[in-house]
What does this fold into?
Amino acid sequence: MKTIKCECGHSNPFGTEICESCGKPLTNENSRELINMRYEGSAVRSQTYNKTIVDKIWNFFSSVKVGIWIIIVILIAAAIGTIFPQEMYIPPNVDPTTYYKEEYGTPGQIFYLLGFHNLYGSWWFLLLLAALGISLIIVSIDRGFPLYRALKYQRVTRHESFMKRQRLFAVSDTGISMDRVKRVLAKKHYRIKEDNGNILAEKNRFSRWGPYVNHAGLIIFLIGAMLRFFPGMYTDQTLWIREGETVAVPGTKTEDGQYYLKNHKFIMELYGKKDKEYSAALDKTGNPVPKNYQSNVTLYHAGPSDVVGAKPELKKERDARIKVNEPLSFNDFSLYQVDFKLNEFHRMNLKLENKKTGKSYGEIKVNLFNPKSTYDLGNGYKVEMVEYFPNFKLDENDQPTTENSVPDNPAFVFKMFTPETTKGETAFIGIRKNVEAADNKYKMSFSGIETKNVSALTVKKDNTLPIIIIGGIIFMLGVVQGLYWNHRRIWIQQRNGQLWIAAHTNKNWFGLKREMQNISEESGLVMPIDQSDEKSA
Amino acid sequence: MKKKQRLVFRSILLVIIAVAVGYTLYSNVFNDKSGSVQKGDQAPDFELTDLQGNKVQLSDYKGKGVFLNFWGTWCKPCQREMPYMQKEYRNYKKQGVEILAVNVGESRVSVKNFADRFHLSFPIPLDGSREVTKAYGIGPIPTTFLVDKNGKVIEKTSESLSNETIKSFMEKIKP
Amino acid sequence: MAELSSTLLYIAFIIYLIATLVFAMSLSDKKGKENKAAYTRRWGRVGYVLSILGFISQLGYFVTRWMASGHAPVSNLFEFTTFFGMMMVFAFILLYGIYKTNALGVFAMPIALLVIAYASMFPKDIAPLIPALQSDWLKIHVTTAALGEGILSISFVAGLIFLIRVVDQTSSTKKTKMLEIIMYLLLCVFGFIVVSAISAAAGYETSFNFTDKKEQKVELTYNVPALVGPPNGTQADDHFGPLVASPSWMNGEQAPRKFNTFIWSLLTGGVLYGIVRLILRKRIAAAIQPKLMNLKPELVDEISYRSVAIGFPVFTLGALIFAMIWAQEAWTRFWGWDPKEVWALITFLFYAAYLHFRLSRGWHGEKSAWLCVIGFVIIMFNLIAVNLVISGLHSYA
It folds into this structure.
């Protein structure tokens, strides 16, 4: 391997700009410009090899420039994706192929055709995120390790031109107490290393690792996000559950069995007159404002069973109230209140009446989800259900049929038997639609309806959360570590009977200068001059 | 030597990343039907009661081919294929093929009226709570699974079937 | 309590206004008997103390309103925008404390004032919280995010000062034009406030009936004279009528009204800009530049960078991390590509790019200052446009 040997005797990796040991600038040695202290002038690894295809890929991602470009491309793509709503936010029952054109015209159509309607799940957006992840990994490896080496092996006594070409630099005649200088520096929390009467005072070196720590956090975060797609890590299901119903919670079947849920009651509360502090705002909107959505439920668990649908033996786990912002969590799962339907028809009451006298011969209660085929009223009075249409409509041939199995518009064909009409009379009963033979003597009439609320809950399991959380915490620590502290170094050297002082910080020069001012006032050390000021002035 | 190590390290890291990203892309973009029963899977066992009140359990039909259909009375395409199913049921029952037409979430009365109208004689298990429907991950109905004598799903379709198709399906699962 | 609260907000507003004038005075050339440095330092201190007093008064508004409403007053556009202005002032207090630069006050305080005045254009009633907002995370997430955005805004203020200080004004260039555009846009916000305030004082109202895209009849009431009417709309009264109809592709039934107000802001901004130019007889930035000549550009550059360094972690914590924790509780998922979420991510990515440009590619000074300007545009876009233009889950605030 090629190395560069410095005059101090240290062998530096190829590509090094400043000798790792003594700090002598190895490139444009004779310049008088300030040296670039970025990464301590250590060799960024990628720049040293460029032969195989692997190296070429590696080098591509190792460039910070490429990393920045990836960030910018993601940023622009993400911004374009918000111009019109994503496919997941458009109404569920519309066709996206026509929706975007109808709703947003030609721009909408272009948006759709270019695939921006499903941008964040598209392969190329995911590839961009992956590229960002790869860039994070490679950039960190390539720069982190050399930087670590450089800071670990730095020598106290630095080369003459290293000193001269620091931004803060001064030369003064000796004649001050080095002990006092050291005391002052120590008071300012500097760690002091000495060599032959020369001093290197350093503090907050750890802040230099900030970028690598936060990159590591981001990588962990991205890995967590990726794990979602591995089997068993993630569940997302919706559960519509009526009051009084007990159902298996979808997606919660494990080797130990299956969870069941009973919905006792769904509650919706609105803001009203009692909430005086909001009366002005409430009057202005005129619309009711919801205060609370809540399902009172009981969670059950049943032992393992290989057969779906069989009546299981339920063991009560606990009672709970599920509200928005207050999900019910158990095991790996959480149940969230996400939607509801108020007053769904549940039971319909009808009376058998004599048409002429209006006399009633009893009432039948029809469970709209499971009606009986015969209702016996005693004394020879009986009603048979011939047809049942939970959500009645007429089809294209004007035949009665049902839209679906939800009893939103129930209709029945009854056959009524009485001692008087033993052959039975037929009548069609629906909401505001009654059809019957004119000579019928008896009729069925509505006498009441019972409704129930339906609650929609989302069942969620996300085993990637712990990884995501760890990634987030590490990222935050790294960012704070890197941005809220700065790495400061002060070199003091005796040279030819003079005292040379140089100081460097990775950022926040104003703060360093203020500190140097303080140090020089307290210790008598000469205040270094900002050489970048001189240049610009 | 060091150079070679570096190359190996870089190669391994890049391969790991490529595989992980590839898998993620594959499962996210090209395979969004997770959670539902697919062709090649073992058909999950279930137990329901049919119109007559008899217990119907899928595993009882081991050794026979099962034409497993999910349907509703209100669904026109379902209605269209029912007479064909009835016809082929008569022909193939003796040859060891059974039809289970699981009704999705309707009341006994509705289903019974429907079955009477179309003179259906095959077992119609009632999935009132839709548990089985959910376990199979049924989207639109009708959905038909062909389960062979070993309980394996060899075909899944969500189309309204013609008489010919049903016939060819029966041939496929004849034990 | 609610009345006390709004009184405190007025007081804060007036103190901020005075503080702005004091800071501006401290930069003026009128040297009396005393020397320039002492004069600047003294009036700078006065301005700083006033800023702190104003902040305390606004804090009083915040606390009393919280007590009156029973929840943290950050739940609608008025409350949030006011709070954002307050956080800008707080960030200014913080950074002035470190760098003691009066010029920062001359720009930061009026921009905060504009933000607060803009906020007062939204309905100010104390509104109840819908179930999705009833969470402790409301206050944690929103306040932290606003604080982060406030600190990041100071980087824009410092960047702007830097640009006015260094951009060569001897001839008209792209850069001088861009600077004037920034000045013009700030005047547009001012123009918006002026127009809205005058119309509100006059009690002006005109309404339209029109059919929207969903084939529903909608009545739309404008509070400023209609320059732009709804597509195919009929005016219900005989007030000044619309000159043109707004484009039909605009989203939402309120779009024509918002578009009309937007046009008004641009026009008023233009008129204001014209008047200022006539008085100054040179570019606004060129007129300010001489007052800033005592300022070291490196110092302003560092203030700008420092604001990003302090604000970026706070913003990330509030607008992304706390937001994700809350979204996981309320919406069942920590991330759902809702427009507001996406724009928070865009802000994050932008400042991440800024830090990389600065740390790894050595973008200091001017380039860095222009980036800060763009960053502020993104923050403002997320604050205003995403709520008013792009509909999403965050439509309430």
Summary: The first strand of chain A starts at residue 3 and ends at 5.
